[in-house]
Amino acid sequence: MKRLKFIPPIVIHPTLWFSLVVSILTGTIMEFILVFSIVLLHESGHFVAAKCFGWKIRKVMLWMFGGVMETENYSNRPIYQELIITLAGPIQHIGIFFLLYGLDASATLSPSLIQFAYTYNWTIFIFNLLPIFPLDGGKLLFAGLSYLRPFRQAHASMIVISVTITVIILGIMFYHQETALSTYLLFAFILWENRLEWKQRFYTFIRFLLNRQLLWKKKKRRLPLIVPASTKLIDVFGQFYREQQHDIYLKNGMKVTDEQACLYMYFNLKQYQATVADVCRKS
Ligand SMILES: [Zn+2]
Known about the structure:
- This is Sporulation factor SpoIVFB.
- Its cofactor is Zn(2+).
- GO terms for molecular function: metal ion binding; metallopeptidase activity.
- By secondary structure, this protein is mainly alpha-helical.
- The chain has 3 domains: 1-129, no CATH class; 144-215, no CATH class; 218-282, no CATH class.
- It has 11 helices and 8 strands.
- The strands form 3 sheets. Strands 1-2-3 form a 3-stranded mixed β-sheet. A 3-stranded mixed β-sheet has the order 5-7-8.
- Helix 1 (14-26) runs antiparallel to helix 2 (29-52), helix 2 (29-52) crosses helix 4 (111-128) and helix 6 runs antiparallel to helix 7.
- The relative contact order is 0.08.
- The model has no long low-confidence stretch (mean pLDDT 88).
- The structure holds zinc ion (ZN).
- Zinc ion binds at residues 42, 46, 66, 89, 128, 136.
């Protein structure tokens, strides 16, 4: 089937299918439609903002509390674009609030449904802003950490913070004898996602380096890196900041090379064990 070029493939997460089945069985299909619409509007905020910046979207996955937009451009576009695209989702909830207000005033939906939608709308809004990966708050956290730490450390710190906060929330829920199984499942799913992200963090790091090399752009800010000659290239890359350009100096203060030469040696010449001293000898 031919798909409209503008619209990305939309994947429905099992939790959403599950709630559809539950809503059919319990006769709450209207509630489901409201949830689905809110989630869809949230995600369309991210999507439209991403399109405005010309990002390539691989797919959009919708789940109960929002969605995850998979793109080829995370971490290789300016951080401010990422911030705007990430915020464009939660901002939708303010629009949805006024939409519900209009529906309420026109008495299109029953008061109980409107009340349900209001509650769900603010719940998703607040939930998505928790500083936990893969929620929007987690992405904002990552963007903030990327200014303060090198990419590799920022990424690892984001996962550690996400897991810590999730465990604290689960602890508080347990302490208060919270009984909503779906909330436990939700946080279990988040922990699972963080586990996967942790496992593939080296791949994420390599993708960041490859994109940095392929889509090379001069950066306004420069941060010299001073390293011993015996430093392996992969360890030098571990000190790369997202929005900084790096010249590499040896400990004696002489500039020896730049990041492009190191990346070329690593990826094009496939010298995975090479050191800074090897790059100096070649150039
Ligand atoms: Zn979102």
